[in-house]
């Protein structure tokens, strides 16, 4: 019986190092509509995305002129949480502001 234990101890298990890739990133995008006030969009960008007044105004103008503006790039869970926060804030203030998330382009 001692030889069986010795044989088990001689068994070598090779460990392979797992290569971890960074998590996929998603960009949160505000979409333009004809009803949501610009001041509300700036407030959303400041409260939810932590933008300064100048950054928020720049993104708001991009949304207004180009139809969409990127608010930030986050991991999937954080991006989906921010999208839901925007939707809840817009709904609570009776605005039709739309917010989506999409895979971020590779940098």
Q: How does the SSE layout of this entry go?
A:
Layout: H1 2-10, E1 25-31, H2 38-49, H3 53-66, E2 68-75, H4 76-92, E3 98-103
Antiparallel strand pairs: 1-2, 1-3
Helix pairs in contact: 2-3
Q: Could you please describe the fold and organization of this structure?
A:
The protein has 107 residues and is α+β, with helices and mostly antiparallel strands. 49% of the residues lie in helices and 20% in strands. Helix 2 packs across helix 3. The mean pLDDT is 91.
Please give a quick description of this structure.
With 107 residues, the chain is of the alpha+beta class. It contains 4 helices and 3 strands; from the N terminus they run αβααβαβ.
- Tally of DSSP β-strands: 3
- Distance N terminus to C terminus? 61 Å
The overall pLDDT average reads 91
Please list the strands of the largest sheet in the order they lie side by side: 2-1-3
Unreliable stretches: none
Helix content: 40-55%
Characterize the biggest β-sheet. 3 strands, antiparallel
Structure keywords:
107 residues; alpha+beta; 3-stranded antiparallel sheet
């Amino acid at each position: 019986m001692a030889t069986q234990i010795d044989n088990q101890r001689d068994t070598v298990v090779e460990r392979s190092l797992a290569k971890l890739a960074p998590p996929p990133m998603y960009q949160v995008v505000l979409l333009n509509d004809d009803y949501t006030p610009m001041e509300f969009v700036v407030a959303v960008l400041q409260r939810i995305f932590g933008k300064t007044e100048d950054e928020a105004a720049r993104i708001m103008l991009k949304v207004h002129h180009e139809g969409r503006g990127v608010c930030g790039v986050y991991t999937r869970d954080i991006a989906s949480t921010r999208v839901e926060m925007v939707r809840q804030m817009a709904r609570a203030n009776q605005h039709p502001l739309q917010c989506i998330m999409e895979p971020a382009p590779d940098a």
